[in-house]
Amino acid sequence: MSGDATNAGLGTRPFVEKADIYRDSPIGMTRRVASEAEWNEEALERRAEQLASEALNLWPWESASQTASEQTPFKWRIDGGEWRMADTGSGLVLDVAAALLAQDPQNVERFSGGTLSRDLQPASRFPPNSKAGTLTLRAVPGRDDVVIYPYGSNYPESAERCRQMGARCGVDVEVLLANENRTAALWRFFKERTGGVPGQKDSWRGPSQWTSTLNADGDRVGIHVGNEELVWLYIRSGLGAERASERAARMRHYSWLIQQTLGDQQLGDNLDKNAEDGTSITVQRPWVRDDEDEWAEVAVWIKDQQERLAAVLGSD
């Protein structure tokens, strides 16, 4: 959707020219396209995941096989403590605020607002359920002295607000959305624990992601964390399908180098098929993806193998 501009007017212009038009679009989801440096397969996949996530927020659905806890929109905890559930965005904000105030009375001051805002407000000035301007204030559970405006425009906004409240109080508030798969939480953990990989963005959510380009040909290291039993990395060619023969030859060469230098790791097969698809063989590791106790060890492993594959690219 291009807003005021017509698709016919955009025609077949290069992406860099279209991006200038997208950037001024009145449609937010179109403006975000302009943040991409180039429009390629990776950008397309990121875009698809963003749109799918927004669609699930607007039109959530429940699988008959899901448990009650999986259907709950939010799961949250403070400083690695016990997970708790919340059914709504406003309920999440209220519950987290109550937990922070119960943890330390001084937290009242740490996220109170001096002026009318979404921060805590004194109930003596704004009684619960009173309306101040456009804000309908709610009592914080278990407290009769403070109120807060707990509503957000969407679930991710409510989740981020709770994380920020925690930061102001000096604690880590972790919030997971039911429709945010485990890979999104893993990417956040990976970046916090290891610093991430070249080009890693805070918005990484998908099962497969790629580093920024690591040589003049645009080759990258790919990482796949979507499989519940196996995590793997590989080299992905920057050459397009129009150079398929050259691309396949380069990937066979990289696969040979991986076999020579990363032989201490579990390696994939299907060398010829991978080469035709523009990737090398994989470097693999068994894991239980949803076992968070394993994440720290796996994060270090991913970082190490990414650096070793980057060295393979540099040795070519």
Fold and architecture overview:
This protein has 316 residues and is an alpha+beta fold. The protein is 41% helix and 14% strand. The protein is built from twelve helices and 13 strands. The protein has helices at 7-10, 15-23, 28-31, 41-58, 68-71, 89-103, 107-110, 155-168, 182-194, 244-261, 271-277, 295-315, and strands spanning 74-78, 84-86, 121-122, 131-132, 135-136, 138-139, 146-148, 173-177, 208-210, 220-224, 230-236, 266-267, 283-286. The strands form four sheets. A five-stranded antiparallel beta sheet has the order 9-10-11-13-12. Strand 10 and strand 11 form a beta hairpin. The two termini are 43 Å apart.
Which secondary structure elements does this structure contain, and how are they paired or packed?
Blueprint: H1 7-10, H2 15-23, H3 28-31, H4 41-58, H5 68-71, E1 74-78, E2 84-86, H6 89-103, H7 107-110, E3 121-122, E4 131-132, E5 135-136, E6 138-139, E7 146-148, H8 155-168, E8 173-177, H9 182-194, E9 208-210, E10 220-224, E11 230-236, H10 244-261, E12 266-267, H11 271-277, E13 283-286, H12 295-315
Antiparallel strand pairs: 1-2, 1-8, 3-7, 4-5, 6-7, 9-10, 10-11, 11-13, 12-13
Keywords:
about 325 residues; alpha+beta; 5-stranded antiparallel β-sheet; 13 strands; about 15% strand
Q: Would you summarize the structure shown here?
A:
With 316 residues, the chain is of the alpha+beta class. It is 41% helix and 14% strand.
Helix content: 40-55%
Mean pLDDT: 83
Give the distance, in angstroms, between the N- and C-terminal Cα atoms.
Answer: 43 Å
Shape: globular
What is Rg?
24 Å
Order of helices and strands: HHHHHEEHHEEEEEHEHEEEHEHEH
Structural class: alpha+beta
